[in-house]
């Protein structure tokens, strides 16, 4: 086995340098979970300040999700989804995916 030494440095504008600029603050998740039922129903609300595009759900682990096309979600709009078959695998996650107006894609896992 050959060992490789990787050098690293902290750039002046990085969070670790202590000189963080306001424009580099973390993006606040624009969702609130309103309902999470044992039958697999999850309802979320867009509590952000912008319309989100191509919003869709996915399941990580066991569970079945009905097919739906990605779509836009306006501020204060609710989405509801039902995942079936969770009894066999309670460690599954619901993954909420969306794009912001500038084009960046974001993912947010929701535990059952």
In short:
With 112 residues, the protein is mainly β. The chain is built from no helices and 8 strands. The relative contact order is 0.21.
Describe what you observe in this structure:
- A hairpin with a 5-residue loop joins strand 7 (93-99) and strand 8.
- The chain is an all-beta fold and 112 residues long.
- The protein starts with 30 loop residues before the first strand and ends with a strand.
- Helix content is 0%, strand content 42%.
- It has one domain: Immunoglobulin-like.
- It has strands spanning 31-36, 41-46, 52-60, 64-65, 71-73, 78-84, 93-99, 105-111.
- The chain has a four-stranded antiparallel β-sheet with strand order 1-2-6-4, with no helix packed on it. A four-stranded antiparallel β-sheet has the order 5-3-7-8, with no helix packed on it.
- The radius of gyration is 19 Å and the shape is globular.
What general outline do the C-alpha atoms trace? Answer: globular
- Biggest β-sheet, characterized? 4 strands, antiparallel
- Poorly predicted sequence stretches spanning 5 or more consecutive residues: none
Number of domains: 1
Q: Could you spell the SSE succession in H and E letters?
A: EEEEEEEE
CATH architecture: Sandwich
How are strands sequenced across the largest beta sheet? Answer: 1-2-6-4
Please render the helix and strand layout as text.
Layout (H helix, E strand, L loop, with lengths): L30 E6 L4 E6 L5 E9 L3 E2 L5 E3 L4 E7 L8 E7 L5 E7 L1
Antiparallel strand pairs: 1-2, 2-6, 3-5, 3-7, 4-6, 7-8
